[in-house]
Design a protein that fits this description.
5-stranded mixed sheet, 5 strands, DNA polymerase, domain 1, Cytidine Deaminase, domain 2, single chain, alpha+beta, 220 residues
């Protein structure tokens, strides 16, 4: 049964718990409730947070929701949806700054970046990791959203992304929203085509990583 925030003892309310015990003491639902600030008639911000997390499956799923998708949800609306999207956007930027220039020397190095960037997405995304001559990561460039098909691999866009950012090396990554990280035949054909094109362009190809959640597979 929904419980309005006024009925929650003050010491158990998210804002008061944050002040008293720090942000690490709060659950995901409490953090979402703080961003929402207010509930609606008959529902507290915690109730709305619970509904959002249940609907999108997890905090990761909620973080990928579009603004217009959130704004249509009861108890959210455009203002709260904007606040949620902004909060998740800030979190991504902080995460990228903290991991801005790792060296991609092994498949595991590439996979670590790919998992941070692609985990939780509900659609397939092709991401190019542009590196300098020392294999230090300089740019992350999304070149495709949607199904990755052998006939539709954006090879021109991949190479252009590397050259446009003065890259000397690059890795290709994409996710499998199905949860199965095993590369498909199309993934293998795409890898062979990108490798061949990179040689022609004088670029060093560091490999292709497929991720599904925290699992990954390498194609070279």
């Amino acid at each position: 049964m929904p419980v309005v925030m006024a009925a929650v003892p003050p010491a158990e309310r998210p804002r008061e718990r944050l002040v008293a015990h720090g942000v690490e003491s709060l659950s995901a639902r409490e953090l979402v409730a703080l961003v929402l600030r207010h509930g609606v008639a008959g529902k507290s911000a915690l109730d709305v947070a619970d509904e959002l997390l249940a609907e999108f499956g997890s905090l990761d799923g909620l973080s990928e929701a579009r603004l217009e998708e959130l704004a249509r949800r009861p108890g959210v609306g455009p203002a709260k949806a904007s606040a949620l999207v902004a909060a998740f956007g800030l979190a991504r930027r902080v995460n990228r700054i903290a991991h801005s220039s790792p060296s991609l020397r092994t498949a595991a190095d590439v996979a670590a970046v790919a998992i941070r960037e692609l985990d939780g997405l509900r659609r397939e995304r092709v991401l190019v990791l542009v590196c300098d001559q020392r294999n230090r990561l300089r740019r992350r460039v999304v070149v495709s959203d949607g199904a990755m098909d052998h006939s539709l691999v954006p090879i021109r866009e991949i190479l252009n992304a590397v050259l446009r950012h003065d890259g000397r090396a690059f890795a290709l990554t994409h996710n499998h929203p199905s949860g199965d990280p095993e590369p498909s035949d199309a993934d293998r054909r795409a890898t062979a085509e990108v490798k061949a094109a990179s040689r022609v362009a004088g670029l060093r190809f560091l490999g292709h990583i497929v991720v599904a959640g925290a699992e990954w597979r390498s194609l070279s």
